[in-house]
Write a structure and sequence with these properties.
This protein has about 450 residues and is an alpha/beta fold. It is built from six helices and 24 strands. Bound molecules: 2-acetamido-2-deoxy-beta-D-glucopyranose (3 copies).
Length: about 450
């Protein structure tokens, strides 16, 4: 109710502000024609242009902004069409972009069309549309499922572009390598299309890029390591594609990186060995779910002090859970489920309490928790209690049997829950040493 009232009130307010900014009514005739052409090609109400002869002054068009841009005329600087534009007619089902119209809007800085092309395969971006449109800074065509065909390589002629967002459309084909010529681009969002093929190496030409979102496409091939030279990058989301190969170590050198999401790909490789150095201590979100990562989780994750969310679920990570993760002060979400992690969970009770159900360690067959350490059901864990006994020297039947079965040396969960003594003991070698060390410390303290 209050919101509706606010909307009603804001209509005359919007109209008033846009008309008051008009210094005169004069708009170059060619520009006026081009604007009319575009809006009649898009909007359902064909009488709209006739009813609003002065789009920049007395009869303003919602979503259209004009400015004199230090000339004697009014020029169209921004066109925005979408369901959020109050009192604008909706797009027609046969909406299209006239190939040459934008060329007659030489002062256009921003073009954004939301949810306009909805009929499947009803519209495309003709290559000629972008030629010489050097003023355009923001091109945002989002949520237009009917907008299909390829992204024309002529987009690279838009040399002033800082934001290119073509998310949630029906684009197919590859990412044009020419896109790398947009050296002023700060945001590239091509997410939720059907883009296929490799990510072009040329993307490394985007030297100002802060946000790269290529998620939810059908991209394949390797991640170009040249992305690692884009030192302005703060957010990389290439999740939900079919990328293969390793995460290039160069990614670890992006010092401003805040978010890295490469989940749901066919990426592979151990973290360690050729470690992903992840120097960006500002990193707050890392998503590497459902890749094919294997090997241990590097304890260096524990030095990413800004980390709020870490998802490594559904990989083949093995070794132990680094206890250092549990001292990350901002961490609020940790998913390590569906891996091959082993050994005792060493997180503090406080940490486990803080994360609650946002701590997920399920589906790791060889993880175990000290009996009664954590509150029952306090986090997502299906691990049994660690096999326990007061004797460090005697490996215990269960562990001995485990060793015989598969020749593997590890801390064994007490699957049969047969040991009730409450003191943990572990399988042979490493684990036994740890336990012995603990025992030695205890002895030293008591002495
Ligand atoms: C990953 O690769 C496997 C086999 O190599 C294939 O079956 C699967 O579809 C691929 N997954 C993705 C997300 O590309
Ligand atoms: C982890 O798995 C790799 C093979 O994927 C194996 O070589 C390595 O020994 C395993 N490490 C541990 C600690 O289980
Ligand atoms: C953790 O990941 C698993 C597997 O991908 C998923 O099913 C589960 O919902 C996630 N848990 C949380 C708490 O997000």
């Amino acid at each position: 109710m209050a919101a509706a009232l606010l909307l009603l009130l804001s209509i005359p307010l919007l109209a008033a502000t846009s008309s008051s900014s008009a210094a005169g009514d004069a708009m170059p005739a060619a520009e006026h024609r081009a604007l009319t052409d575009i809006l009649t090609s898009l909007l359902a109400d064909q009488s709209w242009a006739e009813l609003h002869p002065l789009p920049c002054s007395e009869t303003p068009w919602p979503g259209v902004q004009c400015d004199t841009v230090n000339t004697d005329f009014l020029h169209v600087v921004s066109i925005h069409i979408g369901p959020d534009v109050i009192s604008s007619p909706p797009c027609k089902s046969s909406a299209f972009l006239p190939p040459a119209a934008l060329l007659h809007l030489p002062f256009l800085k921003s073009l954004s069309l939301f949810s306009c092309f909805l009929t499947p395969n009803s519209a495309s971006l003709p290559p000629s549309i972008f030629t010489d449109l050097s003023s355009l800074q923001h091109l945002v065509l989002n949520s237009n499922p009917g907008l299909s065909g390829e992204i024309p390589s002529s987009v690279s002629t838009l040399q002033s572009l800082t934001v290119l967002s073509l998310s949630q459309n029906g684009f197919r084909g590859g990412i044009p390598p020419e896109i790398g010529r947009l050296t002023g681009l700060r945001q590239l969002d091509l997410s939720y299309n059907h883009l296929a093929g490799d990510i072009p190496e040329e993307i490394s030409g985007l030297s100002s890029l802060a946000i790269l979102d290529l998620s939810s496409n059908e991209l394949e091939g390797n991640l170009p390591s040249s992305i690692g030279i884009l030192q302005s990058l703060q957010k990389i989301d290439i999740s939900f594609n079919s990328l293969a190969g390793r995460v290039p170590p160069a990614f670890g050198e992006l010092k401003r990186l805040v978010l890295l999401d490469l989940s749901h790909n066919n990426l592979t490789g151990p973290f360690a060995g050729k470690p992903l150095r992840l120097e960006g201590i500002g990193l707050t979100v890392i998503g590497l779910s459902r890749c094919e990562l294997f090997g241990p989780i590097p304890s260096s994750f524990g030095s990413l002090i800004s980390l709020t969310a870490l998802s490594l679920d559904r990989n083949r990570l093995n070794g132990s859970v680094p206890a250092s993760l549990g001292s990350l002060p901002e961490l609020g979400q940790l998913n390590l489920s569906q891996n091959q992690l082993a050994g005792e969970i060493l997180f503090s009770v406080e940490f486990v309490k803080r994360l609650g159900k946002r701590l997920d360690l399920r589906g790791n067959r060889d993880l175990c928790a000290r009996e009664n350490k954590y509150e029952e059901g306090s986090f997502r864990l299906e691990a049994p209690a660690c096999l326990c006994s007061s004797s460090a020297g005697n490996g215990g039947n269960r562990a001995e049997r485990g060793e015989e079965e598969d020749g593997d040396v590890r801390i064994s969960p007490a699957l049969d829950g047969g040991d009730q003594t409450g003191n943990c003991h572990f399988g042979p070698v490493n684990a036994r040493h740890m336990c012995f060390l603990g025992f030695a410390i205890l002895v030293a303290l008591l002495a």
